[in-house]
Amino acid sequence: MTRRIALFAICTYLVAAPGMSRTIENVRDGGFNVDAGWTENLAQYSGTGDTKVFDETTNPGVLTLTYTNAAGSDETTVWVRGDVTLDEVGDFVQADMKTTGQRIGVCLAAATSFDQDRSNLIYHGIRSDGIVRSHAYWGGGNELGDADVAVPGGVSDQWVTVQIRKTGADTFQLYWGLNGVADTQVGGTFNYGNVSAPAGTETPKYPALMTDAGLGDFVGQFRNIIVGNINDPGVDNFDDGALSLNWDWNNIPQAGSPVDTFSLQESGGRLLVDYTNLGGDQVTFIARDNVTLQDGQSVVVAVRVTEGELSSAIGFGLGMATVGHGLWMDRSNTVFYVLRNDGLARANFFGNGGVEIGDPLATLTGYQLGDWVTLRIQREGSILKLYYGQGYLAEADQFVGQRDYSAHQLPTVVGLLSAPGVASFKAEAELFLVGDFVPVELSGIWVE
Questions:
Q1: Which of 88, 136, 149, 400 is deepest in the core (most CB within 10 A)?
Q2: Those residues with Cβ within 8 angstroms of residue 132's Cβ, 6 or more apart along the chain or in another chain
Q3: Sheet (strand 75-81) strand order
């Protein structure tokens, strides 16, 4: 992925670094296109005059589009982001969206400026009758293919996520899902390098937003408008059927005797944890050994406890340390931050020599066994800040506490953590993310 301008201030759960992911519209800066990165184009129309008003203040964290149709107008509008391109296999553009009418979506274009020309465009979005609907066009506006699938529950009251993914030098596939998880393919592979492609065919590369067709008034909503690569090393959505070798569970910063046992298994896009307590008080740190938390970044995970007593004896969530392998009976310069099964978001900060230097907590509202909680640790220089959110893939915006490590060794290795291991339990984790941002919503693999 290529970027041609300096990064602007963003609110995202994703990484703004080469080969990793970032938002392409800051939906909390007060207005659409504040950084002038988007160019509006009319790809198709039989009449013009429609009014499109973007608003980021009515619903904070959401880009709301109020579309007013002019009599006799029929517009397909594409807003192209010209400072970003999808160049590498695995690159994608993705957004969450809702609409009360017509079709809105993401798009991929071969040019940043065009008029009455749908050549080399891929439309991929949601239609108000509850359909994910997509079209791809070759040069000359010739249709390459289309695809559609029904969305259970419709598209006006739930966040539907659509993604255009680059799968080869000239090929693309389309995916969709709910709440940010675009993991279901719709249609086949669209090939812009096909020998039968007509003259003027180019491989699209610029991410965009789109509306089609402007035949009536409607309100559309977008959030988490991002580009990224599915091979982002700071992300694990636990969907490949086998535990990544980048997880290292050979870390026990605190333990009793005998040492507890546990199993980790991926299934259905989740990490399943089966923890067996053998009598000790064990803390187990499962480090992610291929990424560290840099200044300005956060680590995020959605977790829940599915079996176990509702007590302080069980906790599962995030951990940090200065090393990612071989940690044994040493909690020096670590962070324990867990969903505790008595209904707390509970943390312990440890500094030099294992001395506790902070223990913030927050009470979860109406907590019950099986409830999802999003946990987030954000680094700002030497300060680590903790946040949480309640609900499945919830926004982690509730502040728990913070600690300045300027007088200690700052932990930067991140991972999952069980603490305290005083009782047996089963838990699940979903969407482990590391990235550059001040997060707003956790939505699937990518967030803004």
A1: 136
A2: 124, 125, 126, 147, 148, 149, 150, 151, 160, 162, 176, 186
A3: 38-45, 75-81, 206-212, 103-109, 121-127, 131-137, 143-150
Q: Residue 40 domain-assigned?
A: yes
Same domain, 203 and 325: no
| Angstrom distance (rounded) from CA 68 to CA 74 | 11
Query: How far apart (Å, rounded) are the C-alpha atoms in residues 386 and 337?
Result: 8
pTM higher than 0.70, yes or no? no
Same domain? For 245 and 223 the reply is no
Q: Are residues 165 and 302 in the same domain?
A: no
Let me know whether 97 and 39 are in one domain: yes
CA distance 203 to 221: 28
- Of 229, 264, 288, the last residue of a domain is 229
Read off φ and ψ for residue 211, nearest 5 degrees.
Answer: -130, 145
Q: How many CB atoms lie within 10 A of CB 105?
A: 29
Decide if pLDDT at 376 tops 80.
yes
Please tell me the distance from the alpha carbon of residue 24 to that of residue 440, in angstroms, as a whole number: 14
- Of 130-139, 221-230, 308-317, the poorest mean pLDDT is in 221-230
Cα pseudo-dihedral 361, 320, 378, 303, rounded to 10 = -60
Considering the domain architecture, whether residues 136 and 265 belong to the same structural domain is answered as: no
Q: What confidence score (pLDDT) does residue 234 get?
A: 67
What does the pLDDT read at residue 351? 98
Contact (Cβ atoms closer than 8 angstroms) between residue 95 and residue 170 = no
Confidence class for position 393, pLDDT limits 50, 70, 90 = confident
CATH of the domain at 136: 2.60.120.200
CA–CA dist 274, 421 (Å, integer):
12
Identify whether residues 67 and 168 lie together within a single domain: yes
Q: How many separate helices (H) and strands (E) can be counted in the chain? A: 0, 33
- Judge if 213 and 306 occupy the same domain: no
Above 80 in pLDDT, residue 436? no
The encoded tokens of residue 39 equal: 């160019």
Give the domain extent around 314.
Answer: 235-436
Q: Which pLDDT does position 318 carry in this prediction?
A: 98
Residues 253, 169 share a domain: no
The model's pLDDT over 22-64, given as tens digits with 9 standing for 90+, comes to 779 888 778 999 999 999 999 999 888 899 999 998 887 799 9
**Does residue 404 sit within a domain?**
yes
**Residue 136 domain-assigned?**
yes
- Counting the structural domains of the chain, the total is 2
Contact status, residue 285 vs residue 319, Cβ threshold 8 Å: yes
Strands (E) across 234-296 are located at 235-236, 247-248, 261-267, 270-276, 282-292
